[in-house]
């Protein structure tokens, strides 16, 4: 379960916002097991190399004053029963609120319908943030201040300020606040590209309201793509994060902020060793747009893509299973105008490699609408380059097609027939073959009767004989482009 951490009153229900927690131990380690190489008798023995851990206490003392606690007050509409047994004035986060709500619901079912009215109930939350400008510009998560009517920022010197939300961007989960203050401590901005997997990082925030809490860990991975978060190449760490630390900084050993702690993956709603931070370069880009215009914009290519696994790599004669496989191209969109087609594999964007399909929306989303890009694609066994002018994601969002089909062995296992003219009109396709029966590897791969086969290994499916020829020439697997309920996806079928 992916959890964004902002806190309700019951600690186990961390359903609203996300952040970072922890206590740090500092110390030094000296290697005692190094073995010196033999040296001449007259030479002094070589000294054993010393290895020390970062001084987390110095980093904390120097940079913690730029980290703030954020308190949010908002409202939500809820049904309340009239009369002496109503729940007016009860906080929805109170553990007894749900009990009384259910009790009254049962009473209504047994004793007749009581009067119901909509009322606004107060909602409170907490998060973290950090100061990036001495005149009071603060970065935090968008979900921390979502639907907020009042935002209060508390500094480490215990001063409190009413904050104005300059803007927020749900696509990247970044929000920008402003407080009326001067000469504030700030965090220096680092470079995410210089961040290395295995490097020590530090997090400061307010888990469960415990202000100025510090945790440390290492960078576990970079460029992670998470479900429903296609615009952010997340930094994965093992730094402890818990509700209330959303929006807090991820800091390297040089005291530079490299990310905004945002989410965790958890079965319990609490920290389980997998935390995710928004790269600071993404956050700063969003911040600059919001400060200048009050909103953030993201570019759009207009394609649906899916992962290139080994079966697809074999089908399309790729040297390795990397890239973003284009399963659908939006008609009239930027990709369509650039000449992209279903079956193309996007390998690079402006020279930046696309390893996983999630790399594409994250990279495109960081560019400005209207900008021009160069795409390196793989089409029909050959490398090609295309130029595209990006659109605006506010107009229409690109999607990532999901396919979790398995693969089988043996013959293809499809019974096909040409589509009738009326069926072609209903399916809104120019050609294709109707899949009547499915067995063997195709069934194991998830192909279903009623699907329309549009192409095989990038070649349009015009006739049954043509499909047989492609299968006969295929080595290990074939990639079927099918249409199902109006959606197009590629399905890899292992032939054996």
Descriptive notes:
With 496 residues, the protein is of the alpha+beta class. Among the domains are: 188-293, Thrombin, subunit H (Beta Barrel); 299-400, PDZ domain (Pdz3 Domain, Roll); 414-494, Roll (Pdz3 Domain), CATH 2.30.42. The protein has helices at 56-63, 95-111, 280-293, 310-315, 334-338, 359-365, 421-427, 440-445, 464-473, and strands spanning 2-4, 67-81, 116-133, 137-140, 148-154, 160-169, 174-178, 188-189, 200-205, 213-226, 229-237, 249-252, 256-265, 275-279, 299-300, 303-307, 324-329, 345-349, 352-353, 372-379, 382-389, 391-392, 399-400, 414-418, 433-438, 452-456, 459-460, 477-484, 487-494. Strands 16, 17, 18, 19, 20, 21 and 23 form a 7-stranded mixed β-sheet that branches. A 6-stranded antiparallel barrel has the order 9-10-11-14-13-12. A 6-stranded antiparallel β-barrel has the order 2-3-4-7-6-5. The radius of gyration is 28 Å and the shape is elongated. The protein starts with a strand and ends with a strand. The relative contact order is 0.11. The model is unreliable at 7-40, 81-86, 106-115 and 397-410 (pLDDT under 50).
């Amino acid at each position: 379960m992916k959890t964004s951490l902002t806190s309700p009153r019951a600690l186990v229900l961390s359903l609203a916002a996300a952040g970072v927690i922890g206590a740090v131990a500092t110390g030094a380690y000296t290697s005692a097991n190094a073995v010196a190489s033999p040296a001449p008798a007259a030479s002094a023995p070589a000294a054993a190399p010393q290895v020390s851990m970062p001084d987390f206490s110095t980093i904390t003392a120097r940079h913690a004053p730029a980290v703030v606690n954020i308190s949010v007050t908002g409202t939500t509409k809820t049904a309340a029963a009239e009369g002496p047994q109503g729940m007016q004035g009860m906080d929805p986060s109170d553990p007894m609120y749900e009990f009384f709500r259910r009790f009254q619901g049962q009473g209504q079912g047994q004793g007749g319908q009581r009067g119901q009215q909509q009322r606004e109930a107060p909602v409170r939350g907490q998060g973290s943030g950090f100061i990036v400008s001495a005149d009071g510009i603060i970065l935090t998560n968008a979900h921390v201040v979502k639907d907020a009517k009042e935002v209060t920022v508390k500094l480490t010197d215990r001063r409190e300020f009413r904050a104005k939300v300059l803007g927020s961007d749900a696509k990247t989960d970044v929000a920008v606040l402003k407080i009326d203050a001067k000469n504030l401590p700030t965090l220096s901005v680092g470079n995410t590209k210089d961040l290395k997997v295995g490097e020590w990082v530090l997090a400061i925030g307010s888990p469960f309201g415990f202000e100025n809490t510090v945790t440390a860990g290492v960078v576990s991975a970079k460029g992670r793509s998470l479900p429903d978060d296609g615009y952010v190449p997340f930094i994965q760490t093992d730094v402890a994060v818990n509700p209330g630390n959303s929006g807090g900084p991820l800091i390297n050993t040089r005291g530079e902020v490299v990310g905004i702690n945002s989410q965790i993956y958890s079965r319990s709603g609490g920290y389980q060793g997998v935390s995710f931070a928004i790269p600071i370069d993404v956050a700063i880009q969003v911040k600059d747009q919001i400060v200048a215009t009050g909103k953030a914009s993201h570019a759009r290519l207009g394609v649906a893509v899916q992962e290139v696994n080994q079966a697809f790599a074999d089908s399309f004669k790729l040297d390795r299973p990397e890239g973003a496989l284009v399963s659908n191209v939006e008609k009239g969109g930027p990709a369509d105008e650039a000449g992209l087609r279903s079956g193309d594999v996007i390998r690079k964007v402006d020279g930046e490699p696309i390893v996983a399909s999630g790399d594409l929306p994250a990279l495109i989303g960081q560019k400005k609408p209207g900008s021009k890009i160069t795409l390196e694609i793989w089409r029909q066994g050959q490398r090609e380059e295309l130029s595209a002018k990006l659109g605006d994601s506010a107009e229409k969002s690109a999607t990532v097609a999901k396919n979790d089909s398995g693969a089988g062995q043996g013959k293809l296992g499809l019974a096909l027939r040409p589509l009738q003219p009326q069926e072609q009109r209903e399916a809104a396709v120019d050609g294709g073959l109707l899949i009547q029966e499915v067995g063997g590897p195709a069934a194991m791969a998830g192909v279903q009767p009623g699907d329309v086969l549009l192409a095989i290994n990038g070649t349009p499916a015009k006739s049954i004989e043509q499909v047989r020829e492609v299968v006969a020439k295929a080595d290990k697997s074939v990639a079927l482009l099918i249409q199902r309920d109006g959606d197009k996806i590629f399905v890899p079928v292992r032939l054996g």
